[in-house]
Amino acid sequence: MNPREIYSSRLGEVVLFKVSRLGYLVLEVSDFPAWEYFGTEILGLMAEKNGSGDALCLRMDGQAQRFRLESGPADDLICLGFEVESEAALEGLAKQLSAGGHAIQECDSETATSRGVPRLFRTNDPSGLEVEFFYDIQESKVPFVSEFVPGGFVTGNEGLGHVVLNARDHNETEKFYRDLLGMRLSDRIAMRIGPDVSLDTDFYHVNSRHHTLAFAESGLPKKMHHFMIEAREMDAVGQAYDRVLASDLRIINTLGRHSNDKMFSFYVRTPSRFEVEFGWGGVKVDEETWEVEHYDRGSLWGHHRPPRPTGQ
Fold first, then answer.
1. Alpha helices in 124-233, H assignment, sequence order
2. Which long-range contacts does 196-203 make (Cβ < 8 Å, 24+ apart)?
3. Strand, helix or coil at 42?
4. CATH number of 6-134
5. pLDDT tens-digit profile of 38-79?
6. What is the pTM assigned to this prediction?
7. Which residues of 111-139 are buried (b: 16+ CB within 10 A; e: fewer)?
8. Where are the domains of the chain?
9. What is the CATH number of domain 156-302?
């Protein structure tokens, strides 16, 4: 079998082309100054304004943009950007998506240039979220330097980190990301959130990172629940936690360790009122030996919700 091929576990069909890593997120935000402070002074990212001034880019490594912030009222994720290995893989994935019933377009050169890529394709997932695909993204000519996270972040072949989406339809979302984009199931968490209510979250990987994408049919209004960035050093998590405590920002979940990916982390609310997980130490997936597990709780310890501050 061609090494690019994997099997769709539900359909028994060969998936010829797959995404390799999460390359970037596009966020529509209503407060650029608040986000620039949050991204640089709290998360330890590096800000880089584009030439036209209509977007703010945040870097976490040598890539010219990992987070592209565009001005608008949504205060939400508006686009996921996934990298593939080559131009041939990009064209093959586009045909695969079209054959799977998803309208796909090639973006114009101006849009591709704004993302720092030679070619760019776009479609929508079952929740209406724009999803882009690219290869050969631009590196910055300026080295990445972070005053607050000098050890840097885990990226490279594992990509930006992960996102957790609020899906409209669990089954259709599964078909899209697993059967058409080639993602593989890492594990599931079925967590009871009420006497007769369980929230089921599926976690999918595309490389050795435990999960690049997870989703749950949560009923929440925003497209994204949170994104995660992973520091290379454990102390960076505690230091970021201290910076949040010294600010006016709100901790959503205290320090803790997750049951499935073993990530040591905390969650903070962003200026757009979705969440960021700042973590360290996630387990790696070995495709040859990995076994899917089912969990009934999200954390081994910690990740408690502090009392809600007055007026928030």
1. 170-174
2. 200/170, 201/164, 202/170, 202/174, 203/260, 203/261
3. helix
4. 3.10.180.10
5. 999 999 999 987 656 689 999 999 999 999 999 999 999 999
6. 0.93
7. ebebbbbebbbbbebbbebebbbbbebee
8. 6-134, 156-302
9. 3.10.180.10
